[in-house]
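Lab notebook, bench 4. The sequencing result for the construct came back, and we need a structural model before the next group meeting so we can plan mutations. Quick request posted to the team channel:

Model the 3D structure of this chain.
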Amino acid sequence: MPGLVRRPLVIWLLAALAVPVLLTAVLVPARAGTTEDDLRQRTVAALKARGIETGPVDFDGRDARITVPAGVDEGKVREVVAAVDGVRAVRIETSRAGTPSTTTSSTPEHADVPAFELGRTDRSIRVQAPMRSQAVKDALSAEVRQVLGPDREYDDRTTISADGLADATTLSALLRALAIGTGDASVRYDGDTVTLSGQVPDQATKATVGRAAAKAVPGAVVADQLVLPKPPKSAVSEACRTFPARLAQFSRQYRINFLSGTSIVNDASKPSVIKAAALLKSCTTVRVEVAGHTDNLGSPTTSLPLSERRAAAVKAELVRLGVTPGRITANGYGEAFPIAPNTTPTGRIANRRAEIRVLQGN
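Done. Here's the predicted structure in C-alpha cell form:
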C-alpha cells in the first residue's frame, strides 16, 4: 500500500516540473520573434528619418545586420542603428557591384514634385501651383514675364505652401516650351502623370515640350496629347480654276477628227492635239477623259473597238507631248453619240472624232 501512494506523488512532481519547461520553449521563440520585428521596424524608421536608403535590415535577436549599397556612408548607418533602443550590435555588409540589393522602400523620383498646371492661350499664360516660399513665387513670376510677350498677361494662381515647389527653375523649361505658338495648350501634373494637351505649331515644338515635361517631373508618366495644326488646303491656281471654261472654249474652236475606218488623226486635226496638250499642261492636277466616236458606216461590232483605238491614239499622242499618263482616261463610245447627221460626208467627218472633257471629282 505505501508503494501505491508514492507513485502518484512522483508523477505529479514530474508534471509540475515539465509545465514551466514547455511554456518556456513555446513563449521564448515567440517573444524573440516579436522583439526582432520591433527592432527591424524601428531601425528602418530611424534610417528613413535621416534620409538613408539601405538594402535588407535583418536581426538575430538584438544583433543587427544591415546591407549597405555602394556609395552610402557606412559610419553614418552604424551610428543611426546603434542609437536605436534595444540594439546590441551592428554588422554592416556592403552589397557587391553587379549584385542587386532590395531596399526597404522605394520612393519615385517625382514624389517631391507637387501637382501643378501650366496653361497657354492667345491672351495669357496661367500657372497654378504651390510655392515653398514668397521668394520662389517671385522668382517664378520673373520666369513667366520673360516669355509673356506683348500680347499676353500673367494669370497667377500660385499659392504658398510648406510642401510646394522649392525652386522656380523646375518649371522654367516647360514655361519656355509652352509659350511657343498660339491657341490653347496646357501641361497638367496630378502626382502620377504629366498630361500635355492642346496645339503646338510644329513637331519640333511638340518634342521640346515633351522633353521639358520629363525634365520637370523625372520618372513620371508623360501622356502626350499635343496636336499639330492641320496643313492648309493648297490654293487652286488661276490656271486650274479657269481650266473647265478654257477646255470648253477649246472644244468649240478645235476639232480632232480621223480618217475613215482608221485611228489616224487627219492632218487638219494634228495642230488641235498639240494645243490640247498645252492646255492640259497649264493645270497639272486636273484629270480628263478622251472619248472616241465613229460614224455609222461600219457595224456596231466594229465601231466600238475602232472608237476605243481612236481614244487610245489621242492619249498616246498627248503623253508623247508631255502630259502625265495617269491624268488621262481613254474610252470609246462607237456610233452612239453623233453630233451631225451621218447622211452627208461632212456630217460623217464630224462624227469621226475624239473629245476631251473634265472628269467628275476634280
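DSSP finds ten helices and 14 strands in the chain.
Will bring this to the meeting.
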